[in-house]
Amino acid sequence: MPRFVNRRPGRAARVILAALPFALAIGAYAIGSHIRLSENPNDKLLPSFTALADGFTRFAIEPDRRTGDILLWVDTLASLSRLAAGIALSTLLGLVVGIGVGLLPYVRASMAGFLAVLSMIPPLSVLPILFIVFGLGELSKVMLIVFGVAPFLMRDIALRVGELPAEQIVKAQTLGASTWQIITRVVLPQVWPRLIDAVRLSLGAAWLFLIAAEAIASESGLGYRIFLLRRYLAMDVILPYVAWITLLAFTFDWALRHLQARAFPWFAGEGRGRS
Amino acid sequence: MTAVSIRNVWKDYDGQVVLENISFDVAPHSFVSLVGPSGCGKSTFLRMLLSQEAPSRGEIRVEGEPLASEPMPDRGMVFQKYSVYPHLTALENVALGLELERSPLLGRLFGARRRAVLEEAAAGLEAVGLAPARDKYPSQLSGGMQQRLAIAQALIKKPRILLLDEPFGALDPGIRADIHDLMLDLWWNTKMTVFMVSHDLREAFYLGTRVIAFDRTRTRPEEQAAYGATITFDIPLDPADPIKARIRAAEDAAAKDLDLPVSIQTNGI
Questions:
Q1: Residue of chain A nearest B98, judged by CA positions
Q2: Which CATH number belongs to the domain containing residue B17 in this structure?
Q3: In terms of CA atoms, which chain B residue is nearest residue A166?
Q4: What ipTM does the predicted assembly reach?
Q5: Kind and range of the H or E element at B162?
Q6: Where is the chain membrane-spanning (chain A) (predicted)?
Q7: Residue B159 and residue A174: Cβ atoms within 8 Å?
């Protein structure tokens, strides 16, 4: 009998093992829901699967009686446009500042300490300031995402740029490259796939700040909706909404991973994590 | 054909003297091997030739002109590792030097101009025997092929001086012999002056027209900081040495085929 560290599941076993935690979680929910509902048919805490399906249908397919909109789509569109704007702005900042700090000693000397302090400010603690400065509209929500995500992206990109072997930068100079050309031909193309990794890591935080901002001041959005429904203990809608947010987040992560593998075939071969 | 003159060069880091009083002249079209124990400053010396670092005292002149204060295309470089760009194919790696020169703003060419550059780069790859690997990324190449690529990449700029920092140190002996022959042919045909740092004395003597050894002459612990390494041996090698006979064969071949700037027989990959 080989040691446990050397035993590997076969293909079928891997599928079963991967599905097992999901099945257990759903099963536990079904049992809990059944017990509570058989004690009190009006229990709202753990609605049955049919109730969840009804709740989802009410928000995702049937138009709202008051406005005539299909609320799930309105909320999704509102949230995703905020998320996209926040991530886009953060990415741009991350690239510009990160490459500057990672490559140019003058920028590093001036920005590195400032960045280290900036990234320690808890973003939610400045949310009131953002609401005061940018108002309660879209801008303050986008800015919260930027505040929460951009410092991480800037520092991560700066680190990745710093990790590029010095030989590469020197070699580029012997090939006649200017500073700008070193950025466009040596640094930037090698930063793209690393940027995708960094954005993937920061998406979780971006969702957190998005939902926090929407919960506090908003009239639409996925975070607004679940916090609104909380008042009515409408678990039959909140749970599908959470599942929907999870699905969206998972899809973005998956898409970015595949974009990286497809657009930068050299990156996988380069041996990530090499010092 | 480039003469290099090194005058009273010292290098120290925060009072720690690494090199002291290095002076020598290098005739045009020399192949200078720099040898010495680890930490003797031979790589530091090479970096000064590259202008990656500046001498603390003294100066280095090329053709009577002081060196520029930063790395320039007149001096090509091949490092032991990381010389080639992982995100570019072999062909793009070689074309890079030409693209940077012809497209100052983007460093990138398009259409017919790009095709012209790629054609030139393909000839450069051919010269180092890498034509079949033109569309591969460096991670798909063996160590020996990566170093051939690094050489082709440096040579596309037609540097007057080529600097090699233990370029073949990580290669297997068989591959090393092939790439040595290639290096000699390229050196002979391009008329470059070559400086090579090496750990391998056989390699240093086989390739070099001159072997210069750096070492510390004072080794007592309390003297270590105040005294650096200097030249302990400077051995000109007789061009008539039988080991070098093959170079003359290359010369004869080149004489018959003067129109081609780089005409060499490749020795497999």
A1: A175
A2: 3.40.50.300
A3: B82
A4: 0.84
A5: strand B161-165
A6: 83-107, 114-136, 198-217, 237-256
A7: yes
